[in-house]
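Researcher: Here's a chain I'd like modeled. Treat it as a single chain, no partners, no ligands.
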Amino acid sequence: MISISNLGMIYGDRTLFAGVSLRLTEGKRYGLVGANGSGKTTLLNILTNHLEPSEGEVTVPKRTRLGVLRQDQFLYDDQSIISVTLRGNQALWEVMVEKEALLAKADDHFDADRFSELEDLIDRYDGYSAEARASAILEGLGLPTQLHHDPLSSLSGGFKLRVLLAQVLASEPDALLLDEPTNHLDVLSIRWLEIFLRDFAGPAVVISHDHRFLDNVSTHILDVDYETVTLYSGDYTAFIEAKKTERQRREKDIAGREREIAHHQKFVDRFKAKATKARAAGSKQRVIDKITDSIVELPKSSRRYPTFRFDQVRDSGRDVLKIEGVKKAFGDNEVLHGVDLLVQRGDRIAIMGPNGIGKSTLLKIVMGELEPDEGTVEWGYETHTGYFAQDHREDFRPGNREAQTWVWDACPDRTIGFVRSNMGKVLFTGDDAEKPLDSLSGGEAARLVFCKLAIGLPNVLVLDEPTNHLDLESIEALVEGLKKYPGTLILVSHDRWFVSQLATRIVEIKVDDILDFQGSYDDYVHFCGDDHLDADRVVLKVRQEKARKQISAKEGPKREISKGKRKRKRERGDALVARLEQAEARAREIDETFCAPSFYQTTPAAQIKALEVERAEMAREVEALMAEWEKQEEEIGVEG
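Model: Modeled as a single isolated chain. Structure tokens:
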């Protein structure tokens, strides 16, 4: 569908990529990977025609709708969340806006012909089901129905990005181009997005630093490296192995040719001065020259791997951390409902749960940055903690200090050579060490924090979303460093691959409970069942569990209900079904009225407006009745 021919991008004397020719086809999902600054986003901007290449061209068929997600879109703050989502299909949105404007001034003048044309266009764009589709996508991305008519400004930055992602997905694009779509998503939303992308019919190009996400989604990998873009078949794990094997093969081939040159050179050096062997020596020299000309020097990789090494000053006591009855609320919203947890030396604990459930709050409490409303936190004997905060830039103030000064403040008794050596391990070399703190990228800032943590020799590491701003190379290097770390590890992360590589114990914070699972992440997923990562099923499961808890609390240990009560509940359920059928029938009746051939020509504008308002009310009533009926059925199932 999208053709790339001899594409190149050059900035000054630096070549990002050149000679790139590819074809992106329907049903294929391409993970776009490469080091930070290698040209991934540049390539995406060229594909969307937001940037002109230095050479070559990109061909996109006419009328192809591109769904594009970038990381710099913060607009529409005063509009409702559902409206922002619907704007993804700009053509449909403009028709809907024009129709509303026409109806608004219908008392003065009503253009029946234009109104009829707009209705036809809405029908052609499948506009009457657009809001339902948009709502389902928002739900899948963790934004519940009751928020959909709130203004976008009511959301945090992370949730705004979810709305922008929903806008792209709801636009019914022919191709998707997504830059870091998993940023600010929790595990459930990431899993929902994976399923959405696997069902997507067109080509999809995705930039992501989430290893597991790339494995689950990608059918191919586009690797931006060695000043070109190389296409590999398979997921990210297969790509890593294929790239490594290919590099080793080429290096081995060059080494073999160099050995052959050395062998021939010995003959030339030995016999070139002898008249009887001069001809043979000349022949060998020509062979050497030919082999030399055939050797193409391998370009250097743009990938850079930091070195993370964490040691501990000494072992801690056996009991590292004891949390008892910790509760925390923000206003009326209680996020922690009485947490009890014992952490012992050598534990590698991943704390999991959906966004907003209280994971970061719990870490802030144990690190003394927040006071609990109730409960106690007690650190064990000889514990020395190192804390990676999700909002670690707070520690950089004032931001005009140099990076090396900030690190040196953590070890003032050490030499500048020690400081620069440790900074070099995390890729701060040369003038990079003198950068002001407020000029650092997200990845640079994270690596610098880890540099400082390593110098402190902690025997307990507490990490809150440590991979958020790291590229894939840094994440892989961090995993290697933490695997060798002898101390205790407590982490919060939405990166499932990262967690699966490190955790030996999973603590899941639920809505009103805590699951403490002794085992790896993969064992935990197997224990919970595959549906644990399916957003729709998890939401239903939470509703059912909540209903059981509420009934249990109201009725105490008694579980049986009387036949009369059960009968009354059944009768109420039947009444709800009758009202639901009545509302659906009225909605269908209005739809049929709208479809009448001469309806818009012969019906007064005020009546059209009234019917549209009633149709919207019927849709809301159907949704409310369905939710009430589902709740009723759950209660009957639990109590029966």
